[in-house]
TrEMBL record:
Keywords: Cell membrane, Membrane, Transmembrane, Transmembrane helix. It holds the Pfam family MarC. It comes from the Bacteria. It comes from SAR86 cluster bacterium SAR86E. One of its GO terms (cellular component) is plasma membrane. It is a multi-pass membrane protein. This is UPF0056 membrane protein. The keyword Metal-binding does not apply.
Amino acid sequence: MFDQLLENTILLFVAVDPIALVPIFASLTQGLNKSDIRKVYIQATLVSFVILSLFYLFGTAILDAMGISMSSFKIIGGLFLIAIAFQMVLEQRQSRRQNTAEVALDDESIQSLAIFPLAIPLIAGPGAMTTALLIAETNESNPTEMLINFTPILVIIILVAFAMWLSASLSKWVGPTIIIVVQKIFGILLGALAIEFVVAGIMESFRL
């Protein structure tokens, strides 16, 4: 149980990547007073928490309603996470997230920053949503196990909120070089874990 819990936490952590979020949040909220910054990160935290919780609680039911097997979702979800892992290793993901942030600053009002691009897609992006659903697949009918498996989502959301809260201070220490190194390491870990999902999906599909 503990090994599975740790693996799920690591998987969701690298999918959300709160460390890389620090400089983006700092740039998005530059010029805002402390009260406005606080409102933005609290709202972004709550919205992303609700989104990931919904995918965790109802994602499997949605797949069943659409006639999609979990084994098929493991394969496509794993391939999707592998693509994200390649972007992280090749340093493409951070620039893409930064571009998303810059577009939001140009086209959206400051009040909507918490929802776009912070909550969606920077925190609760496709990778995080996919991961939440894959975590839910490990649940049994036991409510206690469902609550325990929900822990990674709660932990990561708290870490994200903490990172945004300290963004002004952390951005001075988390420079581009550190972010690049961390992303490459996380990319390799994410790729390895994603392959496990693909292999498991193939084995379940062909009953190997």
